[in-house]
Amino acid sequence: MGMADGKEAELSEVKNLTEMNGCLDDFWAVRHEKVVAWRVWGYEAESFTERLPQMARTFRIATRKSKMAMAQTNRIIGLLKAVAPEHDFVAHEVVSDGCYERFKGDLQTIGGKGAFVKALEHAMLTGEADMAMHSLKDVPGDVPLPEGLCLPCVLQRDDLRDAAVCRTGESLVSLKPGSKVGTSSVRRAAQLKMNFPHLEIVPLRGNADTRVAKVDSGEVDAAILALAGLRRIGLEGRVCDVFEPDVMLPAIGQGVVCVEARDDDPELLALLAKINHPDTMACITAERAMLMKLQGNCHTPIAGYCEITGNRNLRLIAMVSSVDGTEALRARHKMTYDEAVQLGETVADELLAQGAARLLGNA
To answer: Could you tell me the domains of the chain?
Structure first.
C-alpha cells in the first residue's frame, strides 16, 4: 500500500469508528492518535484535521464554583458560542478538598491563590477539562506555566482600578482614625498604609460577596476589592470610593480574564484565538515579563499596568514597595507595540537597579 493509500485508509478508519461508536469522545480519542501517526508520516497535523468531517464537540472549562468565577466563565462561554455555534461549551466546576476554604490564617502561607490555579491546571492535565478560566492576576507570574499548558487567550481588559466598599452613607475618606479596612492583598495593604496611615489595615478572606457581607456585619469598616470584579457580580452599587492608579496602582493583570489550555489541542487553540484581544495580550505580556524578571507574585508588593498610547506604543508603569508602605520604588518606560517582553524586562531592570530585590526579599 502506498503512502497516499495509507492516508485514505486512515481517514476511512476514523470515520468508520466514529459512525460505529456514535460517541464524540471516542472520535476525539481516535483523532488524537491518528494525528500523531499522520505526523510520523511527515504531514502536518493541521492538514489531517482539515480532511476530517466537522464534528460537534463538547469543551469543558475548568472553573471554581464562586459567583465571580461562574460569571467570568459564562462570559467566555458566550463568546465561544458566538464564534463556534456548532460546539458545546460547559463549565466544569473544580471543588478543592476544602482545606483552603476552612483555613482561617494567612492564605499566603499555604500557597495563596496560586493553589486554586493549580487545581484547575490539574483538571486539564488529567483530562477532566479542556481549558481553564482564571482571573489573570491570580496566575503566578514568577514561574513558567506547567509543561503542556499555555495562555492563548485573554479577554478585553475591564476597569483595572481598585475600589472601596463601605456601609451605606460612609466613605473611606470619612472613616475615623483606627477604623478597620480589610484586604487580602499585600499590594493594597502597602498602598493603603502609604495613603491612609490613620486607618488599621487587617486581613480579610473570602469571595467578593463574602467580603462585602463582612463590611455589613461590622467585622470591618471597609473592604478593598477590584472594581471589575464587583461589577461582574452586580455589586458596583456598593462602591463608595474608586482609586485612580496614581493613588493605588493595580495588580499585574488586574481586570483581565484569561483562558489557559493544553498546547496539544490545535482545534481549541484556533477557537480561542478568535476571542483573544490582541491589545490586552500585548499589555499583559509586558506586565508578566516584568513580574517574571522581578520574581514577584501575588504575595509581594508589586503593582503596575501597561497601556497603549495614542500612537500605538506600549507604556508600562510599575512600583515595588515595602510591606509597611514606608518605601516605594517606581519606574515607567515606553516602547513599540511589538517590544512587550523587552519593555517588561527593562522596567524590571530599572526597579532592580533602585533596590527592588531588597524590598522583595523582605516581603
So the answer is: 3-51 (no CATH), 162-243 (3.40.190.10), 278-363 (3.30.160.40)
